[in-house]
Amino acid sequence: MWFFGLPIMDRIFINTGGICDYDDIVNNQSLFNDVGSKACRKLQGIWTGGHDPSGHVFLLVQSSIILWFELLDIRTLAELKKFGDNYQGKRQWKERALLIASSSIIVLFALLTLWWFMLLITSIHFHSFPEKLTGLFFSYLPILFYLVPRYFNL
C-alpha cells in the first residue's frame, strides 16, 4: 500500500461513493475519509454505500475460461492413441501415456465442476446483481484482449 496506494477494489468502492462507517467516539479519530478495507477493519468499521465488484466471480470465471482453453485441445488424446497404435515400441508406454492423459482430463473436469459450483453458491449468497456483472465483465476482458488480436488480425 505504501507504494501504489489502496488496492484496486478499494479504489473502485471509494470512488463510487463507498465509505467506512465507524464510531468516532470509540476511535477518537475523524480524520479518515478515504480509508481502505484493512484500515476500516482496524477502526472496527463497516463498508457502506459504493459499488463492490465481485472478486470471486472475477477469479472463478477467469480461471475457468483458462482451463476450458486447455480442454479445447482435447484432440491430442486421439492423436496420442493414434501415435501409440503406430508406435512399434513398448505397449506399456502407450497404456501409461493414455492413462496420464485421460486422468488429467478427468481431474480438469472435476476442478471445473467444483469452481462452477462455487460460482453458483457465490452468486446466490453474495453481492448484488450489478456487482456480479462487473466481476464477470472484468473476467472476460483479459480473454478478449488475448483472443481478438490473434483471430481477427488486428
UniProtKB/TrEMBL annotation:
<keyword id="KW-0256">Endoplasmic reticulum</keyword>
<dbReference type="GO" id="GO:0034389">
    <property type="term" value="P:lipid droplet organization"/>
</dbReference>
<protein>
    <recommendedName>
        <fullName>FIT family protein scs3</fullName>
    </recommendedName>
</protein>
<keyword id="KW-0443">Lipid metabolism</keyword>
<feature type="transmembrane region" description="Helical">
    <location>
        <begin position="133"/>
        <end position="152"/>
    </location>
</feature>
<dbReference type="Pfam" id="PF10261">
    <property type="entry name" value="FIT"/>
</dbReference>
<keyword id="KW-0812">Transmembrane</keyword>
<feature type="transmembrane region" description="Helical">
    <location>
        <begin position="98"/>
        <end position="121"/>
    </location>
</feature>
<keyword id="KW-0472">Membrane</keyword>
<dbReference type="GO" id="GO:0005789">
    <property type="term" value="C:endoplasmic reticulum membrane"/>
</dbReference>
<keyword id="KW-1133">Transmembrane helix</keyword>
<dbReference type="GO" id="GO:0019915">
    <property type="term" value="P:lipid storage"/>
</dbReference>
<dbReference type="InterPro" id="IPR019388">
    <property type="entry name" value="FIT"/>
</dbReference>
<keyword id="KW-0378">Hydrolase</keyword>
<dbReference type="GO" id="GO:0010945">
    <property type="term" value="F:coenzyme A diphosphatase activity"/>
</dbReference>
<dbReference type="GO" id="GO:0008654">
    <property type="term" value="P:phospholipid biosynthetic process"/>
</dbReference>
